[in-house]
Structure formats: C-alpha cells, structure tokens
User: Which sequence fits this backbone?
C-alpha cells in the first residue's frame, strides 16, 4: 500500500514511517515542502497518489495556539480540510491524529469516543473543527485521539522535570490536571494495527490508566534516582499560562479494545521509556 505520512519529521510520524516501511511504500512529507495553511501546497499530495494518508502534521504549541487562535485554525483545522479534500480526489483513506483537549475536562470518569466534545482552548477547538471536517469529507476515516505524548529524541515533560531536578530548581507541578501519559512507540504500534484492521471510526489510543501532572512528575523522579527531591503540588490557577487545559481529560479505549487493540498501563510504558533513555535507576 502507498501510505503518505504528513509530519514525517516529527516523533510520531517518524516512528510510523519506520514501522510501516518494511511492508508498504512510504511517502513522507513535512515542512518546508508541505505548508498546511497553503491549499496549493497540500494539493500536490494528489500527484503522489497515496492510498492512505496518515495526518500527523499539526501546530501542537498549545500556548502558541492560544496566543494566535486564527493561525491555529488555519493550520490545524483548515489545513486538515485541504488534506481531506486531497483524500476525496484520490478516494484515499485518512487517519487523523487528534487530542484529548477536544473535551472540557468536567467529567470525573474517562471520556469515551462518542462523548460530547466541548473544547475550552484554541488548540482543542482547532482539532475539534478538524475532526468535524474529516467526518464530513472523508467516509473512509480514522480519528485517533491521544494525550500527553512522550517520545524519544525530543524535549518532553520527562526531560523537563529531570533537568529542573538536576539543576536544583524548586519543583512546583499541578495536581488537578489529569490525563494519560502516552508512550510514542506504543501509540505508533497501535495505529499500525488499527490501519491493518480496516475498521474506520473514532478511537482513543492512550496508555491505560491516568495520573495528574504532579503524580507523573513524582513517578519520574522516583524511578530516575531523585526520590529525595520534593515537588510542591499546586493547582492550575497557580500556574498561569496562555492556554487553559482541561482538568480531567483521561480517555477510555472502548472502540479499539473491541478489535483487540490495547495499550499497556502508563506506568509500564514510562519505565520502558526511562530504561531506553538510560535514565532508569530503580
């Protein structure tokens, strides 16, 4: 199968390309040749005639989206429209990577795939608009929501916490923002299995369980040799930032589990990540 991956230079796109390349023809595109905000740029995807497009490319700077919501819509929502229209012309399937931030965080139980979305920040809104566009324009689609992605080869929450601990900084981490940390490699493997299944629809693919930002930071420090480093728990209101995240945005994998596609608990995934990064002490 000819599979195009947008955002192939990113951590998820790159991992998907590596997993799929042995069995498929991979067409990877990214900046600067692909500008999602430019319809003409995206229309060139048609010339490569992919049978499936995995759309990972997005503006994922959540605070940046809050500062410039118009640009967030242009890239994340209407950029996705341009990709969806390319799929229409080709009769190709589309897999779109979305986010837990399409939900408002008011639930106290994990969100299922068809619970009502109600984004409370511009990033979440731009991805929710993109979801609607995909549903309207491409019958053969997968929408995959995930959260708190942690990948090798880049700076992420794990590295941020450990760097601050190593520098002796005072750690203050929010205790009322809760979701599922998701290991990039586990997500990529689950997406590959979903593509093979041919079962279109909306899916939540996250590592099992959920935790607060504070709890995740404590877990990281305890297993990387920093058990004695204290973390002051704070609430979101004490950590001002341009974007307001949903407080509780844990996702339940209901749909993919029916296909036998599940991800291991987040604790196991984070231990694996730490071990592969050479950071695991205990």
Assistant:
């Amino acid at each position: 199968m000819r599979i195009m991956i947008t955002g192939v230079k990113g951590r998820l796109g790159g991992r998907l390309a590596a997993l799929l390349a042995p069995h498929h023809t991979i067409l990877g595109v990214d900046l600067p040749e692909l500008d999602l905000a430019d319809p003409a740029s995206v229309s060139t995807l048609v010339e490569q005639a992919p049978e499936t497009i995995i759309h990972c490319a997005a503006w994922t700077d959540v605070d940046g989206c809050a500062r410039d919501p118009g640009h967030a819509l242009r890239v994340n929502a209407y950029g996705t429209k341009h990709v969806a229209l390319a799929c229409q012309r080709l009769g190709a399937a589309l897999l779109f990577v979305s986010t837990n931030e399409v939900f408002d965080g008011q639930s106290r139980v994990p969100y299922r795939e068809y619970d009502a979305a109600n984004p409370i920040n511009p990033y979440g809104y731009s991805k929710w608009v993109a979801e609607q566009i995909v549903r309207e324009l491409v019958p053969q689609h997968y929408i995959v929501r995930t959260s708190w992605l942690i990948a090798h080869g880049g700076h992420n929450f794990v590295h941020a916490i450990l760097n601050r601990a190593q520098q002796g900084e005072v750690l203050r981490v929010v205790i009322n923002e809760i979701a599922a940390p998701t290991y990039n490699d586990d997500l990529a493997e689950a997406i590959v299995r979903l593509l093979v299944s041919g079962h279109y629809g909306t899916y939540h693919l996250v590592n099992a369980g959920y935790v607060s930002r504070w709890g995740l930071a404590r877990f990281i420090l305890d297993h990387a040799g920093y058990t004695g480093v204290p973390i002051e728990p704070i609430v979101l209101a004490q950590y001002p930032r341009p974007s307001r995240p949903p407080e509780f945005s844990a996702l339940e994998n209901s749909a993919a589990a029916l296909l036998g596609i599940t991800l291991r608990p987040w604790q196991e995934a984070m231990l694996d990540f730490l071990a592969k990064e050479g950071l695991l002490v205990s």
